[in-house]
Amino acid sequence: MQKKAVSAVQLILFVSCGIVVYLLIRNLMLKKSLEGISTAAAAAKDKDSRQNIKVEQDIRRDMEEKYKADMISYQVVKKRLEQEKNRQREPEQKKEASDDPGK
């Protein structure tokens, strides 16, 4: 009876050791695959970061170009407005000069 009990315990220990070894191997394989995924994710994140920086630089450049174009347009409109004011003043000045011959 004792021999059977000892044999059963030995068998249980042997099977348990086999299960533990199997689980350790699977754990190592899982860890390696997760490291691979982590590396790929880090590479993708780095790529996205570089793309975001490039997009940000493109947007900044476009905004600067738009600002310069808007400033040029503003200057042109300002000059046209000034010219229009001068055109309106000329007839008024001529009218005032003709109304006041004493000066």
Order of helices and strands: H
Radius of gyration: 44 Å
Distance between the termini: 143 Å
Report the portion of residues in β strands: under 5%
Helical/strand content category: mainly alpha
Mean pLDDT: 88
Could you please describe the fold and organization of this structure?
The chain has 103 residues and is mainly α. The protein contains 1 helix and no strands. The radius of gyration is 44 Å and the shape is rod-shaped. The model has no long low-confidence stretch (mean pLDDT 88).
List keywords for this structure.
0% strand, single chain, mainly alpha, 103 residues
Topology:
Layout: H1 2-99
Brief rundown of the structure:
The protein has 103 residues and is an all-alpha fold.
